[in-house]
């Protein structure tokens, strides 16, 4: 597992500065939440780390190595999206195997990895089904499984639970917490839901327009909000 460093990262869309000179460090094995209102730049930040979006300034380092000039496939991170992004024409097994095709993993090992991840996520009986035959929660677990088998240096989750109903969201949240207990993977979990951030993350990065508003443990942020914005955002019910 690897640390992730953002060093004065900036991003512009046209004339709009979405991220400005943002620096922060995520330690190896740490579970960090990016928390902030819709449109504050959470997805853009994550996509820049994954390499799906170019940085306009600054550097991104993973495990001490500069990656912002590398293509997504060379960064060793796995991203899980809000909308699953599973291939509809492939089975769940094929979806999970797909990400491994480029990394020269022997066939038997691929099979072992997929069954291991499917067992942890309790989707083993679903491996031969196609995404269209799965519920929302099952699809989301399949998407998490696909990230797991890649054995990445870090996991990037972009609001992975926001499409699920309340009961399933809670259950999957508990599963994610359990998974992190086992795997101890460097994880960035993007959410606009303060309860999710508070219950999952060791540290929370509160984002507001373009910048970090506050970084701290859930308790620090709750007990000592650094600004009016944080106090209002963290204090308001989900
Ligand atoms: P969040 O994930 O926190 O809701 P985003 O990172 O998706 O926020 O978006 C941050 C801002 O950047 C928003 O104002 C959004 O409209 C804008 N934005 C995001 N992607 C693009 C794009 N490809 N082109 C232009 N503007 C974009
Ligand atoms: Mg977003």
TrEMBL record:
Calcium found in the keyword field: no
Sequence ranges assigned to domain ABC transporter in this UniProt record: 4-234
Keywords: ATP-binding, Nucleotide-binding, Sugar transport, Transport
Recorded GO MF terms: ATP binding
Record-stated family: Belongs to the ABC transporter superfamily.
Name of this chain's protein: Multiple sugar transport system ATP-binding protein
Organism: Labrys wisconsinensis
Residues of the full protein shown: 1 to 238 of 358
